Amino acid sequence: MVGKMKAVTMSMLFPVVAALSMATPAVAQPGADLPAAIWQDPVADAAHPARMEVLHIPSGGETINGIVYIAAGVGPHPTVVVCHGLPGNEKNLDLAQALRRAGWNAVTFNYRGSWGSPGTYRFGQNPQDLHAVLAYLRQSDHAAALGIDPARMAVVGHSMGGWVTAMDGGHEPGVVALAVYSAANMGALGRASHVETVKLVAENYETLAGTTPDALAGELNAHSTDYDFLGQAPALARVPFLVLTSNDGFGPHGDQLVAAIRKAGGTKIETAHVDTDHGWSDRRIDLEARIIRFLARFLN
């Protein structure tokens, strides 16, 4: 039904606008402490536009899948590889997009046997897959085609992906910084009873191919020593490292890693604990800002 509409004046709107302004949380407003990449798109570059390319990366006799979000502008660009957790329901693509807006290429990938990458899933293969991804990106033909600067690379890992980052990142040429958040030490988890480890894996098992919770738990139990990321502390001590923890029960894993790196002589490590869950569900902007601010000091 259409009737006569009463004219709306600014005086009538002012109370509504004022109320909305008061209701808007300050954290939603871009400020001096918030990197522009969080809230501002880059300047369009018609000659060198931002784009996405699909990757097919050889690893362990298989070809795993990945994506590179290529930054706008003339390259080569610093490049950040993002490692997802177990099984990878949270793929951190919002983080990858923010990293690209910061002027860096961002690469995500799926380990063998997960999320459509062929092969059988095994924990021990995951650091090998990260190594394969970094080696692929460093190859001169791939680096040229994708606008990658092999001398300015970083790795970011979440949860089990934090373990992957710690297990391999300290050994990689061209990797100038590492960051992990809510990292899980798979070696420490393997020291639980087999029954407890099976339960943990069974709750995080979607899409994993060619295996069972029992088999994966057995792998962790059998390799609790060599899968302990504390053993990587000497290699990690040479690399600037950001360790972020949350209220997920894995905080001690991160704290122990920091202590081990410092004991090994590492002086370029930064830490913070944030009051949020394992996936940083209500602190994604905070997460992205912390990682970008840290990486900018070494990539730019």
TrEMBL record:
Domain annotation Serine aminopeptidase S33: ranges: 76-188
Keyword Hydrolase applies: yes
Pfam families: Hydrolase_4
Species name: Novosphingobium nitrogenifigens DSM 19370
Family annotation (Gene3D superfamilies): alpha/beta hydrolase
Protein name: Histidine triad (HIT) protein
UniProt key word Transmembrane helix: no
InterPro entries (UniProt xref): AB_hydrolase_fold (IPR029058), FrsA_esterase (IPR050261), Hydrolase_4 (IPR022742)
Molecular-function annotations in GO: carboxylic ester hydrolase activity
Signal peptide: 1-28
Domain of life where this protein originates: Bacteria
Keyword terms of this UniProt record: Hydrolase, Signal
